[in-house]
Design a protein that fits this description.
alpha/beta; TIM Barrel; six-stranded parallel beta sheet; 9 strands; 52% helix; globular; binds zinc ion
């Protein structure tokens, strides 16, 4: 009898303690919401949980912010792979591209070198520049180079409206068409920047946005050796290389002009062939 009673008590005690533990755990696991706010007397566990969830939130939102401002272009590139182009297929072909043309100070010397080496390149023309220098624009086209649209007066696209962007593209396109009879299918945004709405419109209209995967950084006015190094240390199959053949007041592209023959010879010796961007990515120079 005594043993029976003892067992019963033990059973009762263990059930009770189990129940108690469960209740305690439940209380700890889900503190009432006001407990978090009036946390002065609460347990440190709750405080630290609250802290960590706060900092997680902060971290998440700062990651989102970082992501948004930092990877916009690569996100766009991933989202619109056929429209936003950074390079061509990985074969032995590469494309030299020249921005901010025409510019009578530098473009003729660049054209002379390309002509001497029989290298076709791609020139991204500014509408205002083409209007100011139609003969130099015609020379670029006449010598077999491809032509792309580099906006009318070089604004940062992400700072202008969709309507302003459309006007920049269409005005330039008309000037280029009136000068050389080409309606460029390729757009190179100044500074390589473009918004998603602008990209969407460009896609609907059948344009391609052409950036680059090798940057000579020649706009900085650096010397021959630096231009050479910036290009040759990053170039590979299918590369689209960014140079300038024009610039603003005080620009100096002597480094580009001096480095270009060496770059062409070096890359030819490595087995590369130079093609225009439309050839590289197998698209038409002219809008359909
Ligand atoms: Zn530019």
């Amino acid at each position: 009898m005594f043993r029976m009673a003892f067992l019963k008590t033990l059973l009762f005690l263990s059930i009770f303690s189990l129940l108690f533990t469960t209740i305690t755990l439940e209380v700890q696991a889900s503190p009432p919401s006001n407990m978090v706010k009036t946390e002065y007397n609460s347990e440190s566990v709750i405080q630290s949980q609250d802290k960590s969830s706060k900092s997680n939130l902060q971290q998440n939102s700062s990651n989102k912010l970082k992501k948004k401002s930092k990877t916009t272009l690569s996100e766009l590139h991933q989202k619109y792979p056929g429209t936003m182009v950074l390079k061509g297929p990985k074969n032995q072909r590469i494309a030299l591209t020249f921005d901010d043309v025409p510019d009578p100070r530098f473009t003729p010397a660049i054209l002379d070198i390309l002509s001497k080496y029989h290298v076709p390149a791609t020139f991204f023309i500014g509408g205002k520049r083409a209007k100011d220098y139609p003969e130099l624009t015609r020379r670029i086209h006449r010598e077999g180079h491809a032509i792309g649209n580099h906006s009318y007066d070089h604004p940062l696209f992400t700072k202008i409206t969709l309507a302003q962007f459309q006007s920049q593209i269409l005005t330039t396109e008309q000037i280029i068409y009136d000068t050389v009879g080409v309606r460029p299918s390729l757009i190179r945004p100044p500074y390589g920047e473009i918004s998603e709405a602008q990209l969407k419109w460009a896609k609907q209209q059948g344009y391609k946005i052409v950036n680059w995967n090798v940057d000579s950084l020649d706009w900085k006015g650096i010397g021959k050796e630096e231009v050479k190094k910036n290009v040759l240390s990053h170039v590979g199959p299918g590369s689209i290389i960014l140079f300038h053949a024009g610039g603003g007041i005080g620009s100096d592209l002597t480094g580009t002009i001096q480095a270009l023959p060496v770059i062409i010879e070096t890359l030819r010796n490595k087995g590369y062939t130079f093609v225009t961007v439309p050839m590289l990515i197998q698209t038409s120079e002219t809008k359909k």
